[in-house]
Amino acid sequence: MHRKTRSFYLTFLLVTTSFLLSSESNAQRGNHELGGWYMYFFETDFGQSNFGIMGDVQHRSFNVAHDFQQFILRAGLSYKFKNSSFRAVAGYSFFNSGTFGPSNAQLIENRLYQDLIWTNALFEGRIALLHRIRIEERFIENQDFRSRYRYFLNAKLPLNAKAMGPKTFFAWTAAEIFVNGEKNIGNGQSVNLYDRTWLFGGLGYQFSKSLRSELSYMREITENQTKGQLILSFFHTF
């Protein structure tokens, strides 16, 4: 990889980490409730075909163990480009969202999405990078059609090996930026074009080629507040 490109990615990751730490130090300006997100991601290919399926199931709470926030089901058809790390995904997701506090009100959202995912590495494979661009078409109760655009960058650093592989502990950091496609969402409601930023940091363990787990802290930053999330994730390839 070109030296300038490596420098760009390294700078991006350092800035991401510094923002994560600074947002935590300013937590008194944010929401003090620590949320809990519990996630299972799966991926499989159709034999020797370039086609496959990717998806996830998530349960989110406003507090670590209670106050329902969201339940998510998502799955998409994927396609690997030959002789490339690029993968395209098109799929559907279902969201059932709760309301913070004592209210039991819930909101249903149906969503279509398209992903472009690719990987590369820095420093002779020492740092593994994953990129994802996601476009979403959102159909939310009592709102007009909405769209959103997201960019995600993830970096993993193995701690007990030179590269990612089975029986590897690793540290990781990531950032995802969300931008709304429309400001007016119906019924006199509006949103900003900037939606939110997620900043992650955590540790993980690669059990085998097909299974890994991650424990992380994420800081969600919106125009109105910041909020911390404790995240436990499992990733399964079969």
From TrEMBL:
It comes from the Bacteria. Residues 1-27 form the signal peptide. Keywords: Signal. Pfam families: DUF2490. This is DUF2490 domain-containing protein. The lineage of its organism: Bacteria, Pseudomonadati, Bacteroidota, Flavobacteriia, Flavobacteriales. It comes from Leeuwenhoekiella palythoae.
